[in-house]
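Running co-folding for flavin-adenine dinucleotide.
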Amino acid sequence: MHEIFDNRRYLIPFRSALLPQIFTDVLVIGSGAAGLTAAIEAAEHSDVILISKGELAATNTAWAQGGIAAVLDPADSTDSHTADTLTAGAGLCDEATARRVIEQGPDAIRRLLDWGLRADKDNDHIDLAREGGHSARRILHCEGDATGRELERCLIDRAVRTRNLRLFDHCFALDLITPGSEPGSPCMGAITHHPRFGLQMIWARATILASGGAGMIWRETTNPPVATADGPAMGYRAGASLADLAFMQFHPTTLYVAGAQRKLISEAVRGEGALLLDESHRRFMPAVHDLAELAPRDIVSRAIHETVARQGTPHVYLDARPVKNFAQRFPGIAADLAQYEINPAKDLIPVNPAAHYTIGGLWVDADARSDVPGLYAVGEAACTGLHGANRLASNSLLEAVVLGTAAGRVSQEMRSDTADNAWGTAPRSGPASVISDIPISDQGELDLTDVRSSLRSTMWRNVAIHRSGSKLSDVQDMFDFWARYTLDKIFDEPAGWETQNMLLAGALITRSASWRTESRGCHARADFSEPTDACRVHDLWRRTNPTPTILPVLTSVPV
Ligand code: FAD
Ligand code: SIN
């Protein structure tokens, strides 16, 4: 990677002492399921500020359709859910983390129900759905296919009524603050930008990064516009290790209509009996996997990709005609389809895969601690080892609420004056001043929209469902070139900062994909088509280290 990727510690020049100062015990960056649960829990013991870069509800969480996976049926078990998670994770899941999150799932769901989450019911029981890779019906859902919207409503409702918690929307975090610029320096909060208040320093003893994923880096994505990889990029600049970046999950079924947004068609639709058909209206999944349309998503996505390539057509079809009462069970999807005059009771739905879930992220321990003192990461911004090389459907909201709560709880450790942080016994007036100096670039203007769309197209064509060493290497060279005239600029609004973050994250993902000379889970290489023992490890990348730190996978499952 070009040295400019590692040399820029901050996106902008600043003198902390000259900016407005805000103080808190815990700063949470992100208002999705992970950030809100972390903030609500942290407010039990501390003064908390939560920020989000847009409206509070503008999150991936709010777009979730299928639901939350948890062991809620007495006939189901932690063992079974763990086994399904490990199978989907293709040898890269850390088993103890998976078991711990799954064990805590039922309590997390009970807490949400106590807070007013309106789960769909079948008579008096929670109605549980089935999704790909699950051997049992264990997906709690809300308003049919609007689980995320209801979860976000419930958590925001709780957060606004929580004492000690301040919520700042439209507040963009540019960078995490560390007193030193080398990796290892502790985190003391963030520099933020608000359209009305401008730049501000938010000093915090503990910072919880819950900024979501990187879906927007790919041209085809199910994600909302907020998913621009700001968290991993900020974390990398601050010296945190990022792990397993090669693993981006592609969802098999998004609506593929020219010019339309790639709306997700939930896996739960296949769970209710919908089938995948090729151009000749024949099923192709039974020949690929025993679970056919409900095989793990990496397998279904690749099968669709290969069918499309073989046929020379832009998409395959989802046949939802076998699904009973489609419009009642999936009202949101039915409404989306109606906009294009597609009636799922009669018509086939054109579908194709799209970038969906960012498995890699800041490497954290089982309580969400990163390797930067004072910095925690949760939700899609983090990598806990739970998802391995491929996330099992609906396990991410589960992870967000379970580990969000854990992070909120353990962040209390940073309040102690003996804690391993930059504050020590510093008074509340704040620690030493932080200065960022960046020379003004003498290169010309940049067409940001063009850089962003070129990046997204490049990632989709070369770093998506099928990859090869030579193309990954070409992309690395191209990103090095783009970085020289994109990362030297100083922007004064979020679109510029997001584009710089996307380029950094895209380069890091490409480097990890290039390093991983194997195919495993959702990382498929044409030149290394099998998993290898040598790569059955977590690859951790830290600023200024040109080679990754390798960690073993902690599991008893042989692969
Ligand atoms: P998000 O919910 O994405 O929240 C990120 C937050 O960070 C936002 O508030 C954003 O404003 C903020 N932020 C980002 N950058 C900055 C910055 N620089 N400064 C300030 N704030 C910032 N998972 C399931 O388990 N079940 C499902 O059914 C399901 N369906 C899905 C359907 C769709 C269409 C999509 C896109 C995802 C789905 N997922 C599902 C995945 C799941 O929604 C996400 O993994 C999860 O919601 C991530 O939660 P989060 O709290 O980590 O991040
Ligand atoms: C879906 O509803 O298919 C998405 C579920 C998920 O991403 O976990």
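Result summary
The pocket of succinic acid (ligand 2) is lined by residues 65-66, 266-268, 357, 393-394, 396 (CB under 6 Å).
The CA atoms of residues 91 and 558 lie 7 Å apart.
Job closed.
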